[in-house]
Write a structure and sequence with these properties.
Distance between the termini of chain A: 33 Å
Structural class of chain A: alpha+beta
Largest sheet of chain B: 4 strands, parallel
Shape of chain B: globular
Shape of chain A: elongated
Structural class of chain B: alpha/beta
Helix content of chain B: 40-55%
Number of strands of chain B: 8
Order of helices and strands of chain B: HHHHEHHEHEHEHHHEEHEHEHHHHH
Number of domains of chain A: 2
Strand content of chain B: 5-15%
CATH class of the largest domain in chain A: Alpha Beta
Radius of gyration of chain B: 22 Å
Distance between the termini of chain B: 53 Å
Strand order of the largest sheet of chain A: 2-1-3-4
Strand content of chain A: 5-15%
Helix content of chain A: 40-55%
Oligomer: heterodimer
Strand order of the largest sheet of chain B: 3-2-1-4
CATH architecture of the largest domain in chain A: 3-Layer(aba) Sandwich
Largest sheet of chain A: 4 strands, mixed
Number of helices of chain A: 6
Chain lengths: 154, 431
């Protein structure tokens, strides 16, 4: 547990004093710092909010953006919703899988990239669309998949 | 009559940087709030919204003023909650609004909260909308700094605080009772209704949950009046609607249209027409609604006409599919979405979407058998109307209508042991 997490709890509780409403904002904030939510982190959160560990685990496990395993520096979400699929999202996903040597849901061994399916990112006008660390990129035609990997960027 | 490219909601199309409060104010922003607080009683705002005939833009189309009037007068605190958990496949209007015109939503929230007597309002913003939530957070800070939020707003005696809350990846949280569960820090699973949120909502208190687009209409109503709003659309579907067009069209995007605009105008004039290929099917109102066929393209975009045509206006997410699109493939894609997003609380939805996905996958990959269609329809029959929330029913809209309109195509998949259209299906599990 990091000392400033207690301060965060105070700040969040000013906005959300009721119920367990502080839980999701706190998980967001800690994950932004830690990269993911380890079992130890979830136990710390339970202590901080005076909740049963099982409650925190149960809630964290419900939401796809709370990562229960370490993820890469660049988390690439490829939208596979119908509108994106009509514009080549599947081919885009294939190209990324082939290039990175992993399948969707996995992280490259060097810890650089995680590749994930997203269910409709509400950006069908940008199809095929993806998010890199929750920032939109699109349209990304399959042959331009490398744009999502930021290769060559320094 | 609003003309092509006249915007009341997507105002950033004409006014760059309207997301900055100074620009918003320079173009009449927060004047509706001043007017409402100065010239209107809360009851008068409620009457205005009722008189306008504004209906909920999230999908259900419930009359907004009527919803507001369901709040009991029992002295308990009331809450306004704005649903910005947009995730219905094909729908992307709220994202554009919060990213580019956030102050109009905030102004609408303040006026709406004044009308219903709420002093704490919440925005539940989809977790994936990182940019949108940053824009909202900044706009809220600006509104506080300019005296539009906080205590005693513009010396009116009315006080309001807005709290921005981020979801974390769950389509089901767009369902209002699941949204409230999530906002209370729980798993986002729908509640049994009744009681409805208006009676027992957030923290057990009377709560109104409205969609982003719905609330963004409110400042326009105060400025222009109910008669102006009713000059567009139909008696039961007045006003304007943002339609999101995607799929096989030349210009995918959001288009703000008067209700009752023909679907053909939306697709051919606004979105530039079907491209490539020829039209095969249209989902007019988000992935949850039944498809329309090319002969129905002249259907007006209003709630009643869409129901009469066998579909729904829904969220306004219009997905256009050309003649190379396999309907089995499309049904598989959509049903799989609901399988992934089913919260698992109700057995018919949790198990039904799983089995429908499996059967559609089998059909598409040429391993279907005679009788699969009947099993699909039987499973569908056992989901429809048998769950706590509409997600299970939503998974059926496209599939059942696709089987009805394109039964030959489904049967051909069995007969020919594969997809006659040669569609390539991406399957992360088996490829």
């Amino acid at each position: 547990m990091k000392p400033h997490w207690r301060q965060w709890v105070e700040e969040i509780r000013q906005q959300f004093p009721q119920g367990n409403s502080a839980l999701l904002p706190l998980l967001h904030r800690i994950q932004a710092e830690e990269g993911w939510l380890s079992p130890e982190t979830l136990a710390d959160v339970a202590t901080l909010l005076n909740l049963p560990v099982t409650t925190v685990e149960s809630v964290a496990s419900f939401y796809s953006l709370f990562y229960k395993r370490p993820v890469g520096e660049r988390v690439v979400h490829v939208c596979v919703g119908l509108s994106c699929a009509l514009k080549g999202a599947d081919a885009l996903m294939h190209r990324l899988e082939e290039h990175l040597g992993i399948r969707q849901g996995q992280t490259t061994p060097d810890g650089k990239y995680s590749l994930m399916e997203a269910e409709c990112l509400a950006a069908c006008d940008l199809a095929p669309v993806a998010q890199v660390n929750l920032r939109y990129m699109g349209p990304v035609p399959p042959e331009e998949y490398q744009r999502l990997l930021g290769e060559g960027e320094k | 009559m609003a003309e092509l490219n006249t915007h009341y909601l997507l105002r950033h199309r004409e006014v760059p940087d309207i997301d900055q409060i100074a620009v918003y104010e320079a173009h009449g922003g927060y004047q509706s709030l001043r007017r409402a607080l100065r010239d209107f009683t809360p009851e008068a705002v409620l009457e205005l919204v009722k008189a306008s005939g504004l209906r909920g833009r999230g999908g259900a189309g419930f009359p907004t003023g009527m919803k507001w009037s369901f709040l009991p007068n029992d002295g308990r605190p009331r809450y306004l909650v704005v649903n910005s958990d947009e995730a219905e496949p094909g729908t992307f209007k709220d994202r554009e609004l919060i990213e580019h015109n956030p102050h109009q939503l905030i102004e609408g929230m303040i006026i709406s909260s004044y009308a219903i007597g709420s002093h704490d309002a919440y925005i539940y913003c989809r977790g994936e909308f990182l940019r949108g939530s940053e824009q909202l957070a900044r706009a809220i800070r600006e509104a506080y700094a300019h005296g539009y939020l906080g205590d005693n707003i513009l010396d009116s005696g009315f006080s309001l605080h807005i709290h921005l809350y981020r979801g974390a990846g769950a389509y089901i949280c767009g369902e209002e009772s699941a949204l409230l569960e999530s906002l209370e820090g729980k798993r986002g699973q729908p509640r049994l209704k009744p009681p409805f949120p208006a009676v027992a909502g957030l923290y057990g208190m009377p709560t109104i949950v409205n969609n982003v687009e719905t609330i963004a209409n409110v400042p326009v109503l105060v400025e222009k009046g109910a008669d102006w709003y009713r000059s567009m659309g139909t008696e039961k579907s007045p006003g304007i609607k943002i339609m999101s067009v995607s799929g096989h069209v030349r210009r995918p995007g959001n288009y703000e249209v008067p209700l009752a605009t023909p679907l053909r105008t939306l697709i051919e004039e606004y979105a530039g027409g079907v491209w490539p290929g020829k039209l095969k099917a249209i989902i007019p109102g988000g992935s949850s609604v039944p498809l329309l066929t090319p002969d129905q393209i002249d259907t007006p975009l209003d709630y009643e006409s869409m129901i009469a045509a066998g579909s729904m206006l829904g969220s306004g997410g219009c997905i256009v599919m050309n003649d190379e699109t396999c309907m089995v493939w499309a049904a598989h894609r959509l049903v799989k979405f609901y399988r992934v997003e089913s919260c698992g609380k109700c057995t018919p939805c949790r198990e039904g979407t799983y089995w429908m996905t499996n059967i559609l996958e089998r059909l598409e990959s040429g391993e279907g058998s005679q009788g699969d269609l009947e099993v699909l329809l039987d499973v569908a029959d056992n989901i429809g109307g048998k769950c706590l929330c509409p997600l299970g029913d939503a998974s059926l809209g496209f599939m059942v209508s696709a089987i009805r309109h394109f039964r030959d195509e489904f049967e051909a998949h069995v007969r020919e042991h594969g997809c006659p259209l040669g569609a390539k299906r991406y399957d992360p599990i088996n490829h």
